[in-house]
Amino acid sequence: MVMKEIRDTLKEWKRVLKITRKPDREEFEMSAKVTGAGILIVGAIGFLIHVIANLLATSGI
User: Fold this and answer.
1) How far apart are CA 10 and CA 6, in angstroms?
2) What are phi and psi of 24, to 5 degrees?
3) Which domain holds residue 47?
4) Has residue 57 been placed in a domain?
5) What is the DSSP string of 14-41?
6) Which of 4, 6, 27, 47 is a plausible cystine mate for 23, CB 3.0–4.6 Å?
């Protein structure tokens, strides 16, 4: 039973790898820009939460 599941999983991986392709330069650059923007946005939100928490902690509220 376990061997059949492993075999099926390997077949699925093989099928996925057959249809994938290397991105061209334009597609890669777009993915990198979107990923970088997402990281910056999440970091900015985290920084703002940190600053607000510190302000609230020092003000005694």
Assistant:
1) 6
2) -75, 175
3) 23-61
4) yes
5) HHHHHH-----HHHHHHHHHHHHHHHHH
6) 27
In a domain, 30, yes or no: yes
Q: How far apart are CA 48 and CA 46, in angstroms?
A: 5
Tell whether 34 is covered by a domain: yes
3-state DSSP call for residue 2? helix
Residues of the chain with pLDDT under 70: 61
Per-residue confidence (pLDDT) for residue 57, from 0 to 100: 92
Q: Is residue 7, in this structure, part of any structural domain at all?
A: no
Task: Provide the pLDDT for residue 61.
Answer: 64
Rg of the chain over all Cα atoms, to the nearest angstrom: 23
pLDDT of the residue at 41: 98
